[in-house]
Amino acid sequence: MHNAMHHSDLRIIELSEVTAKVKSMILSANYNLGEDIKAKLNDAIKTEESETGINILNQLLENAQIAANKKMPICQDTGIAVFFLEIGEDIHFHNDLAIEKMQPLQSGIEQAINEGVRQGYTDGYLRKSIVKDPFDRVNTGDNTPAVIHYNIVPGRQLKIYFSPKGIGSENMSRIYMLKPSEGMEGVKRVVLETIEAAGPNPCPPIIVGVGVGGSFEKAAILAKKSLLRPINQTSEDEAIARLERDILNAANDLGIGPQGFGGRTTALSVNILTYPTHIAGLPVAVNMSCHATRHAEIVI
Amino acid sequence: MIRIQTPLTKEIVEQLKCGDQVLLTGTLYTSRDAGHKRMIEQIKNNQPLPFPIQESILYYVGPAPAREGEVIGSAGPTTSYRMDEFTPTLLELGLTGMIGKGNRNQDVVDSMIKNKAIYFGAVGGAAALLANCIKKSEVIAYEDLGPEALRKLYVEDFPVTVVIDSKGDNLYKIAKEKYVRK
Fold first, then answer.
1. What pLDDT, on the 0 to 100 scale, is given for residue B31?
2. What is the predicted ipTM?
């Protein structure tokens, strides 16, 4: 009786709907460069002093146009499929998936997402970049499995954020465990150190995701999550927004420039997210990303 | 802008300077992480390589799949340093050009000077634009590696920049020094 009452309060979401929406967001994120990024590239063309740099920024905009018109991925590295889910606690997922072999040890929602990845990457002519085992390195052939972060939130809505993350920039990412006394200056120092060490490797102009606080892994997840924020926005915290601007200006003084061929446009944005942390710690994660910081979000 | 037709002979290599903008026309071979590992194993086992390496150019790329009627999918460069450990062996066998993006280690640069070779940079992230310059694409070996298979490409006016030349001069270093604000 008690159970039945609770059940009637739940919102039912069919997993096939999740799969269909995941597939469509995979296609749109890979073919279409964000308007916020295009606007920043256009701004950078006006301030860039290097002729080669201007030429490269124009090529990136032209590339975005070709990709959108021909439904081709902006970058051939269509990434490891990263998802952030915000699952309303009053949702029940109903499994109506027609997957041949359901995995008994995977939840329905996990399989629904991975089925969307499988269909999106296969039908959308996207590159399959995932190997089943980090040592054997045999390609899974359909870009699964995805990396999925689950959060339970109040309410009856399902929000899905998707980001196909290229590994060229991902490989240049770093994590630091600073002393609390190092503060914002310390954060600035290690972010700039990471950008300088990466040099031309992550395809500058870059977008830098920074997670500060929490624990070792929380900082890394925050850094990744910060890359979902449109780059025409800043942190809502004024002091953090100042730190973002400060690091961005310093990064653009490094001289690396577009593709590392020299210039003023090394980074387009620095996005910082923070979280409460331990009295003895100041974890800082720096997640590097290229101009093709692709993301999409949907609400069901 | 300098126009070059493959094969990339030592004579052409010696004329190129870091910073030169080049349009390449002719044959490129594609290889990256797993393909390099396999080539080096074949060399160790005294087996022939699946492509003619002398005066050839390797393009570090794993293209996206081609749509119906298209030659290839998006095909921009991957980061080159992961191929560094394999590269001197290939340069010793007569490879004269590499296309990628990002830094190379000193062993690669030393071997490039010794064997006379060029490291070109293509624009990372301009993958759909670069695919337009690829007119033919054919998998010639390692098909099981999927996007990492060894392909023979025919390109026309494929835009690259000389990053490291056969004297070891490096555009990344020179350009950064020019624009850094201390």
1. 96
2. 0.93
